[in-house]
Specification:
By secondary structure, the protein is mainly β. It is about 10% helix and about 55% strand.
Length: about 250
């Protein structure tokens, strides 16, 4: 009888444990039990702002030439020199997934016809990359867009899966808020929207999603696709603030 009583107590204890709440919440996080593997999943709202008082949590990503950047009055100043193919970049040490990415950036005059661009972009690899790229633009694309002398061209690009490139005009010598918004569809793939000063300029549904994370980049690069000749000017940009808002998911 004693053995039967002990077994009954153990059974009741296991039954009570299995009936504990499946979802536990507080103001910052949700813990759920997965039906498939019974692993705990932690979802946390996350926001990060880099105001460029320093370059903590960033690292050099320059591909060609010397690292041409420094902190100046609370801004990241980044530039390339004339008659070079320099590619000056910094990137976040950490990588991120679904959420809203914003860059507050000053777009200067830029050299007429220079093959130089200002980049605010997300990069995983060469086909999993989402870009704002801003430059003077070739004369052909300027004619196509009926660009005025004080216009620059902004390219909003998905480098693959699928490839998409949309071009719009913006005015030079102004501050802009550039935003990439990555939201998840019901099948776990990304929808991405490109916004300039909160106005949607382009969007596309990607063929990849939540398992792809990105580093955040700020750059000025001399690249041949965006002008008519090797740069004749020193071109630069000022990045005041970069921000990410999203949900971190940990198992």
């Amino acid at each position: 009888m004693k053995n039967i009583f002990k077994k009954l107590l153990v059974f009741m204890g296991l039954l009570l444990f299995s009936c504990s709440p499946a979802d536990l919440t507080n103001e910052n996080e949700t813990i759920t039990n997965s039906d498939s593997n019974n692993l705990s999943i932690l979802k946390t709202s996350y926001s990060k702002i880099w105001d460029f008082d320093n370059l903590t949590e960033w690292e050099d990503a320059t591909q060609v030439g010397n690292p041409n950047y420094w902190i100046e009055n609370g801004n990241l100043r980044i530039f390339t020199n004339p008659n070079t193919w320099e590619r000056s970049k910094v990137k976040t040490i950490s990588s991120f997934a679904a959420g809203t990415y914003s860059w507050n950036v000053y777009i200067p005059e830029m050299g007429v016809g220079d093959m130089a661009n200002i980049g605010a972009f997300l990069y995983n690899n060469d086909t999993h990359e989402l870009d704002f790229e801003i430059g003077y633009g070739s004369q052909a694309i300027r004619n196509q867009l009926a660009a005025e002398p004080d216009d620059l061209i902004v390219y909003m690009i998905s480098q693959g899966y699928p490839f998409q490139s949309v071009q719009r005009k913006i005015k030079r010598r102004q501050w802009y808020n550039l935003t990439l918004q990555l939201s998840l569809t019901s099948n776990g793939r990304y929808n991405v929207s490109w916004k300039i000063n909160d106005a949607i300029m382009a969007s596309v549904r990607l063929n990849y999603g939540k398992n792809t994370k990105f580093n955040i980049y700020c750059s000025v690069e001399n690249l041949q696709f965006i002008g008519d000749h090797i740069p004749k000017s020193q071109n630069y940009a000022l990045f005041d603030v970069v921000e990410f808002k999203g949900i971190l998911i940990k198992k």
